[in-house]
Amino acid sequence: MAEWETVIGLECHVELSTATKMFCACRNIFGAPPNTHTCPVCQGHPGSLPVPNREAIARIIKIGLALGCQIAPHSLFHRKNYFYPDMPKNFQISQYDLPICVGGSLDVDLPEGTKCVGITRVHMEEDTGKTAHGSASGRIHEADHALIDYNRAGVPLVECVSEPDMRSPAEAAAYLRELRATLESLDVSDVKMEEGSLRCDANVSVRPVGAETLGTKVEIKNMNSVRSLERALVYERDRQIAALEAGETLVQETRHWNEDVGATASMRSKEEAFDYRYFPEPDIPALEPDPAWIDEIRASLPELPRARRDRYVTELGLKPEVARVLVGDRPTTELFEATVALGAPADKAANWITQDLAGLQKDGPGLAGPAHLVELIGLVDDGTVSGAGAKQALEEAYATGDPIGAIVERKGLRQVSDTGALGSAVDEAIAANPDVVEKFRGGNEGVLGFLVGQVMKASGGAANPKVVQELLRERLG
Fold it and tell me: pLDDT tens digits, residue range 260-319?
């Protein structure tokens, strides 16, 4: 039986978080009441004229520079003609053969090493409106009507097109995570896949190992998370291999990913460029950015995720997996940087943020910030509170925003380190567990933890475990 190789390329659409839309002055706001941010330009009224958003163009240039693209000295907007209810003009202003950013690459860290994924192009276009289908499930084939919201029509949209360089669903997922982190660090988009500000289409095919000719390509749509992307690619890869091994012929088509059933389904035959009758947009002149402006944008680029991860490992001494979590999203990165800037040791700040705080954040955003973490780490280091007490204080601070010190006093979390106060509890633990004591004196060091636990229990968790252990060794020695 033949061995198969998977070939994957991704087309990622990024909504820019500019104040206004791409070609008009309507506000660019997610979640507003339907059709409240529209005007004659984005609704395509006769006689209305588009005016390009300078900030949106600056942001796509920033994306291109971060990905190592060449910024074209001359690029054009085109009209992409198709007819669909969510496209009020019956064409989309996009770019075709002369995009603003060409070439480039993105390095992706994989378990087996670093992989360089080529970037074909990064081009600018406008988003479409949003269709809500009138059915309980929201699916088209079950709907008896559809509602159109044009608030999203005309929102600046950047398309990042990769080369078909990925060879597994896991590689594609890693690429998307790295691209998302890069875009977020650039502050060009909020990249929220659940809100549609980052959307990903995947082109996937399979071919016999060693073959140079690409197989029949299928495009998959409707993947709203990294997990969905990986699941969809696994399913589609297996479907194509099974079909070929059964002697079936694959067709080039667009398929829809159904998250509920975990499968793709055919939507339509794959369109070619000529199907859209591209022609230059007559109402917008060519884009010819000033080289000095490009240099100014280049100088404003922040530290990118890969460089930041390397710095955390080499300069701060963090483990690579911890650095990867810290740089995974911008709020976490900013919290870590602010905590360290206030004087917290990097390793301890990283542990609290990636472990205990991350667990609390699963239930939503909280009120604990860098100052809370710095105070918490200091109180643990000087023995004022135990690790268990610190976790309780952090939970309270996350919910209320109160200072850690005030929480410690209010909840009685101050750790008892006075040997006189702890002596009686230590003596009681020894007296109550003669068999454990005998094992310890016989050389079994492991049972000391049990005795420490008994003292901690008797003190309601307030005892300093280090002091308790010292007292136990002294008594039992």
Answer: 999 999 988 866 777 889 999 999 999 999 999 999 999 999 999 999 999 999 999 999
Q: Is the pTM of this model over 0.70?
A: yes
d(CA 336, CA 469): 33
Other beta carbons within 10 angstroms of residue 415's beta carbon come to 24
Q: β-pairing, 4-15 with 91-94? A: unpaired
CA distance 149 to 244: 42
Supply the DSSP symbol for 166. B
d(Cα 56, Cα 63) in Å, to the nearest integer? Answer: 11
User: Which tens digits make up the pLDDT trace of 188-238?
Assistant: 999 999 899 999 999 999 999 999 999 999 999 989 899 999 999 999 999
CB 190 within 8 A of CB 181: no
439-447 own/partner pairs: CB under 8 Å, 24+ apart: 440/476, 441/476
Cα(275)–Cα(230) distance, integer angstroms: 30
Beta strands in 73-227 (DSSP E): 78-81, 91-94, 101-102, 105-110, 113-126, 130-133, 146-149, 156-162, 198-208, 218-223
Average pLDDT over residues 430-448: 92
Q: Among 1.10.540.10, 3.40.50.80, 3.40.50.300, 1.10.10.410, what is the CATH number of 419-476?
A: 1.10.10.410
How many Å separate Cα 386 from the centre of its chain?
Answer: 33
The domain limits of the chain are 4-293, 303-410, 419-476
Here the tokens at position 382 are 């000087």
With contact defined as beta carbons under 8 Å apart, do 361 and 329 qualify? no
